Amino acid sequence: MAFNFFHRNKHIILYGLCLALLLFLLKWLELRFVIIDHAFQIYIGAIALLFTALGIWLALKLARPKIQTVVVEKEVIVPHNGHAFTVNEKELARLGISSRELEVLQLMAEGLSNQEIAARLFVSLSTVKTHTSRLFEKMDVKRRTQAVEMAKRLSIIP
Predict the structure, then answer these.
(1) What are the angstrom distances between the C-alpha of 19 and each of 39, 50, 65?
(2) Where are the bilayer-spanning segments (predicted)?
(3) Which of 25, 62, 70, 152 has the most beta carbons within 10 angstroms of its beta carbon?
(4) pTM above the 0.70 mark?
(5) Is pLDDT of 1 > 80?
(6) What is the pLDDT of residues 72-117, one digit of tens each?
(7) ∠ CA 154-157-158 to the nearest 5 degrees?
(8) Minimal CA–CA distance to 120: which of 100, 135, 139, 138?
(9) What pLDDT score does 47 carry?
(10) Are 112 and 120 in contact, with CB atoms under 8 Å apart?
């Protein structure tokens, strides 16, 4: 049946294909003529599009926040009784922390730098660094924040 249809209408189909081919050729030649005749404007337009895309990309890169906010939830240790804070002497003895190291630890918990701790305790900066490194060894921590957190958890500092 399909063969019959093509056989009966072969002239119409052939003329239709020839017209479509001629129309395609005409449009292609017209496009080439437009491109050759208006090449400068087309290059300017292409460069404008390129720089517009580059500007949008750069704006998106620069508008992105550089710092990412991360929320860390931690357990806060609150004493159960409403009494004044008392130092856990057992933990102090177990860790072997001296009274001067305890003072340095308390000042670290206040957020003071080594220089500020040295000025407050009337000792040299190297002495504070020594006390700090010995505290880190005894408490088996690597950073000041870890030392303060562990001391609060063990009830060594308020």
Answers:
(1) 29, 38, 58
(2) 12-29, 41-60
(3) 152
(4) no
(5) no
(6) 887 776 666 666 777 888 888 888 888 899 999 999 999 899 999 9
(7) 105
(8) 100
(9) 92
(10) yes
Tokens read off for 89: 């002497």
93 within domain boundaries? yes
Identify the domain containing residue 140 by its residue range. Answer: 89-153
Give the integer Cα–Cα distance in Å for 1 and 158.
96
What is the count of structural domains for the chain? 2
Written as one string, the DSSP assignment of the chain is -HHHHHHHTHHHHHHHHHHHHHHHHHHHHHHHHHHHHTHHHHHHHHHHHHHHHHHHHHHHHHHS-SS-------PPP--SS-SPP---HHHHHHHT--HHHHHHHHHHHTT--HHHHHHHHT--HHHHHHHHHHHHHHHT-SSHHHHHHHHHHTTS--
| CATH number of the CATH domain containing 94 | 1.10.10.10
Measured distance CA(158)–CA(156) in Å, rounded: 7
Tokens of 98: 């001296």
